[in-house]
Amino acid sequence: MRILVVEDERKLARLIGRGLEEGGHVVDLAYDGDEGIARAGERIHDIIVMDIMLPKQSGLDICRWLRGQRITTPVLMLTARDQIEDKVEGLDAGADDYLTKPFAIEELLARVRALGRRMAPAGAAGTHPTTLRVGDLDLDLLRHEARRGGRPIELTAREFTLLELLMRHPGQPLSRTQIVLRAWPGDSEAISNVVDTYIHYLRDKIESDGLPPLLRTVRGVGYMIRAS
Ligand code: CA
């Protein structure tokens, strides 16, 4: 499954992320409430794991916002204290389950599995894919691997994220600003002309050796990957 983790304690966020990845999931991290809302609004996640106490907007705010938008992604809320009011408030805000800190990563994995089962009965469609394909280009989100015609392509983290974003929207032009906001949210160093540079890098890697081009420059708009 693809899981969004919203947690401002970066060490804990990375620990949770690593645990979930070892459990076979694809993980996106967000470190404050605003970022959490931006990522959750993409509607590409199967489950959201979210701390209550966050800068900018709390986990409860995010949960209420999600449910207000009719986004029904299951939410597992992390609470700092074992306080009954926190749990009640979390569930009232639309959380599906909660876990009290500190917790064992095995318990988190078990809760996530249970939520996944509850939301998507065995064999049901609707879980988000862990691989993307455009033409003969494959992106394995779980292993962080790209292949063209079966041949592996080495990508940096930024190149991978950019390619993933484009491959999620085949045939749809994205502006430089959209790309920065969605591929690298919260990264103040990423400005829109960086996009041109990374598109150039990607072209060098995925369209080398005379392979048919997949990336297109859309004049006056930005970039897109051709439809499958
Ligand atoms: Ca926190």
What can you tell me about this protein's structure?
The chain has 228 residues and is α/β, with parallel strands linked by helices. It contains 8 helices and 12 strands. The strands form 3 sheets. It has a 5-stranded parallel sheet with strand order 2-1-3-4-5, with helices on both faces. A 4-stranded antiparallel sheet has the order 6-7-8-9, with helices on one face. A 3-stranded antiparallel sheet has the order 10-12-11. It is elongated and about 60 Å long. The two termini are 23 Å apart. Residues 122-126 have low confidence and may be disordered. Bound molecules: calcium ion (CA). Calcium ion (CA) binds at residues 8-9, 51, 53-54.
Task: Provide the fold topology.
Elements: E1 2-6, H1 10-22, E2 26-30, H2 33-40, E3 47-51, H3 59-68, E4 75-79, H4 84-93, E5 97-100, H5 105-119, E6 131-134, E7 137-140, E8 145-148, E9 151-153, H6 157-168, E10 174-175, H7 176-183, H8 192-206, E11 215-218, E12 222-225
Parallel strand pairs: 1-2, 1-3, 3-4, 4-5
Antiparallel strand pairs: 6-7, 7-8, 8-9, 10-12, 11-12
Helix pairs in contact: 1-5, 2-3, 6-8, 7-8
The protein binds calcium ion (CA).
Calcium ion binds next to loops.
Strand-and-helix sequence, N→C? EHEHEHEHEHEEEEHEHHEE
Biggest sheet strand order reads 2-1-3-4-5
What class, by secondary structure content? Answer: alpha/beta
- Alpha carbon gap, first and last residue: 23 Å
What share of residues is helical? 25-40%
Anisotropy-based shape: elongated
Strand content: 15-25%
The radius of gyration computed from the alpha-carbon positions, rounded to a whole number of angstroms, is 19 Å
Q: Uncertain regions: pLDDT < 50 for 5+ in a row?
A: 122-126
Ligands bound, unique: calcium ion
How many strand segments?
A: 12
What's the story with the biggest beta sheet?
5 strands, parallel
Please, what is the average pLDDT?
87
What is the overall number of helices? 8
